[in-house]
Amino acid sequence: MNYWGNMMNGWGYSPGAGYYGGYWWMGLLGMLMQLIFWVVIIGAGVYLYRRYAHRIPTGGFERRDALDVLRERYARGEIDAEEYQRRKQDLEQGGTEKR
Fold first, then answer.
1. pLDDT, tens digit (0-9, with 9 covering 90-100), for 17-61
2. In a 3-state reduction of DSSP, which class is residue 99?
3. Quick one: CA torsion of 42, 44, 46, 51, rounded to 10 degrees?
4. Residue 23's domain spans which residues?
5. pTM of the full predicted structure?
6. Are residues 97 and 49 part of one domain?
7. Phi and psi at residue 12, in whole multiples of 5°?
8. Which of 72, 96, 97 is nearest to 84 (CA)?
């Protein structure tokens, strides 16, 4: 025997009437919230990787030429301008002569 006395559970118009009891939109809202959650988590991961990945040591050595070392010594004040210019000329000419 069918009981259709209560219009809230029957075919009448009510907030719970319709497809899946009228609350089908809650399933869509839940899926949307999950999608937003994972997009934020993955986006934060990509952002952090791009921001800090260049700081991770790779174990290799940086290759520097003699002019780079000379510039660093001059910048630190280990040699004066005259010494810097003399050594720079030597390096640019090949630097095979000894002084």
1. 555 566 778 888 999 999 999 999 999 999 999 998 877 776 666
2. coil
3. -170
4. 1-56
5. 0.40
6. no
7. -75, 170
8. 72
